Amino acid sequence: MSKMKSFAVGAIVCAxxxxxxxxxxxxxxxxxxxxxxxxxxxxxxxxxxGMRDYxxxxxxRDGGIGGVKLVLEECETGYDTKKGIECYEAVKSKNPVVMNxxxxxxxxxxxxxxxxxxxxxxxMAYGLSASADGQTFPWVFNPPATYWDGLSQIISYLGTxxxxxxxxxxxxxxxxxxxxxxxxxxIPLLEQLAKDYGFEVKFYPIAAQDMQNQSSQxxxxxxxxxxxxxxxxxxxxxxxxxxxxxxxxxxxxxxxxVWWPGDDDLRATGEPAKGFKSLNxxxxxxxxxxxxxxxxxxxxxxxxxxxxxxxxxxxxxxGVYNSMLIAEGIRNAQKVSGKKVVTGEDVRRGLETMDINxxxxxxxxxxxxxxxxxxTCADHNGHLATFMQEWDGKKFVKISEPIxxxxxxxxxxxxxxxxxxxxxxxxxxxxxxxxxxxS
Amino acid sequence: xxxxxxVLIDPFVxxxxxxxxxxxxxxxxxxxxxxxxxxxxxxxxxxxxxGVFNFAQGIMVVFAALTLVGLHEMGVPALLALILTIGVMFxxxxxxxxxxxxxxxxxxDIILFMATFGLTYFxxxxxxxxxxxxxxxxxxxxxxLPQGSTDLDLFGGLVRFQHIDIAAAVIASLIxxxxxxxxxxxxxxxxxxxxADSHKAALSVGISLGQIWVIxxxxxxxxxxxxxxxxxxxxxxxxxxxIVALKALPVLILGGFTSIPGAxxxxxxxxxxxxxxxxxxxxxxxxxxxxxxxxxxxxxxxxYRPQGLFGERIIERI
Lengths: 439, 318
What we know:
The complex is a heterodimer. Chain A is of the alpha/beta class. Chain A is built from 15 helices and 13 strands. In chain A, helix 12 packs across helix 13 (344-352). Chain A is globular and about 65 Å long. The N and C termini of chain A lie far apart (66 Å). Chain B has one domain (2-304): ABC transporter involved in vitamin B12 uptake, BtuC. Chain B is built from 13 helices and 2 strands. Chain B has a two-stranded antiparallel ribbon with strand order 1-2. The longest helix of chain B has 32 residues, at 19-50. Chain B starts with a helix and ends in a 14-residue tail after the last helix. In chain B, 49% of the residues are buried. Chain A: Belongs to the leucine-binding protein family. Chain A: Keywords: Signal. Chain A: Residues 1-24 form the signal peptide.
């Protein structure tokens, strides 16, 4: 019996070691912070599948990057900041080359740690908008657009619809948002634009615990009768907002969102969701060689957790795009460092010199999937133009030409926010990292 | 002065000038209130029978709804999936009695309370393992729940009654009525009340504690299923629903942990007050007050009636 007990205790102690992925000196360790469980899993699952499948495809098809296998390990955060930090601490000692927090809440506390731990943070189109400033935040990257870019693009689009930004004067714009760091992020710019263009803003905050209980705020919408509604939701909040808009009778063609609603969020509402619009910067279909390779090398070989029908949908492709940036960062790091097995420091340099032009997109089998993007030491974002897509009842369809961000409005705010951040965080280091020639 | 006007006068002027919006707000509050009452009822039933605050009631709502939708996605016809889900909730009740409650008989209440925490996390993990974490669409149409809405011209404005909300209010009221009659007029109901008063005394007159617990957990499971169907039809079925279920807490504080009428009246008061509060007063502080308003109302009640509206006043000799 005592032997049995010893065996049981031994098994329990050893189990975590056995389950940890084996990563050797000749591999590159890429942890993926994902949220496949909890209230936000509706978006998290598809993004996680896309991220994982693209990198797995590189392993299967090409034997990794530059001949070096990638070791992938997911850590479940549940979109919870505490768990996210735990994940970070758990993977830190395994020499990760890049961290993808996949939550603005998790990103913010990781920003000060990045320079200390020498692990670059890739917060793709989320996180702290000001971290686009590479001089202040050399270890943080948030391509291809900040939330402030996104908001300015929505306002710009509304201006076009009205016949000019000056025509927004006197209009009422409702802003329904997740009452958390993520949803509050664009508010300073929204207030600034309201002042500049003379429109009125009505705020409708939704607490995380009321994501599926939004009826009070939609009663407010019904009373206020905004000319346009802008949604800044996450997870279950997006689908519930679209449903409530339909229940309230708010015209769906006046309902706009930042880039996070997925196909499932709209599908749940059915026919009344037709006309809903959101920003995007990449394709929402699966007709690309890279995606065909994912199907061939990953999905068909049962190496994916994704439902095959979801491959090519908005949020799956969002995950693919994220991993494309990771892969290009690593590939560039190999180039600038001359090493095959790169470190976090090398990948920081790789991301900073990243230049995915049209030829490179073609080489990757992603011609037309997204626009070219180039990062520099000063600009860690790229501030890409996005486009508006509309839900046609079955899928998202691109309906606009590229909408550039309002650089003249966003840039001064970004610069000032970056400066403020450095001043408020006593001892924030001045950039000492050299800038590589390629950038 | 302006502030006083905005708090004390302006909201009532708005109510008078746009009565259609007032009726719509009251209706939304009543529907939410009935659903809160339904969830609170699950807590009350278990608390009455075992003195345990069942923290797992919220996840039971999600688990029941997920099972129903998950079975349907696997190809089971909707009505059969409903029957099978009721069966699953019965198996859950038996399992909880055998595995969780029976070994903990006579342990302090806090131990049983902590055990329901464990049950919560088990059901989250088990649910995600079987059905995945993806939000699912409630099969409202397949269950013959009405769709669409009726718009009425009232007081010069439009008041919209969603048919699913009317169905939710009617079904929830029926379930509450049936359970209230069952637990007050039947032999099992009397046995439940005896168990609630004293486990030992109930055992001494031949009442089977285990049987009562199974019945009560099964009833709480049915209530959870109905709440899950109705709330799921309003939004979707996801693990975020368990947070909504926590809205039953202020309802319980208000209505008392042991009173079925308390759960109903408390639910309605909380539902209506939070909608009115958010709509007419929320804007004064930037909105989003319904998250905490329910707790403030419940706390104010606690100051005057610590046992809740209909809760039993506990007097203990020292």
